[in-house]
Amino acid sequence: MIVMNFLVGLPVMLLSLALQVAVSFWSVRYYVHQSAVSTGRHGFFRDIRPLLVAMLLMMTGTLVQIAVWGTLFVVLGEFTEFYEAIYHSAVNFASLGYGDIVMTKPWKLLGPLEAVNGVLMLGMSAAALMVILQHMIKAQREQGSVSHKDSGA
């Protein structure tokens, strides 16, 4: 039973990792490109729009990963309703652990595997957002020092 759970769960974890890496990479790349393009143009929405888009991309990536796990649960016959499978997957992925829905004994270990996967993937999203925020802070400081020099202070 344990081996079968790992044989099924580890490839899904790897797929989840590949999705997260791709989404994180493209989100940071998008932000860096947009911040380079908008040099000289400022405004609250214009300054935070790339961050918002990056956050939405990462949230979408997370939802896709939850759907992949939920689909696996339906394919394995653990759930007949996709909604229940997605709900259970989201609870696992976010490590909420409500326990109101429990899978059958043969596939029960997939829940903790998904939880470990979710913690790692959400951590990756947080790290990517931190990189973006650090870049924003650095750009704001540089902009402040340039405008401070221009004002003669």
Structural write-up:
The protein has helices at 2-37, 44-75, 82-93, 110-150. It has 4 helices and no strands. 79% of the residues lie in helices and 0% in strands. The radius of gyration is 20 Å and the shape is elongated. It is mostly helical and 153 residues long.
Q: What Rg is obtained from the alpha carbons, in whole angstroms?
A: 20 Å
What is the CATH topology? Helix Hairpins
Give the number of DSSP strands.
0
Can you write the helix and strand succession as a string? HHHH
From the spread of the alpha carbons, the general shape counts as: elongated
What's the N-to-C terminus distance? Answer: 71 Å
User: How would a textbook summarize the main sheet?
Assistant: none
Number of domains: 1
Question: What is the percent of helical residues?
Answer: over 70%
The appropriate CATH architecture is Orthogonal Bundle
Features:
single chain, about 150 residues, mainly alpha, Helix Hairpins, about 80% helix
Short description:
With 153 residues, the protein is an all-alpha fold. The protein has four helices and no strands.
Layout of SSEs?
Blueprint: H1 2-37, H2 44-75, H3 82-93, H4 110-150
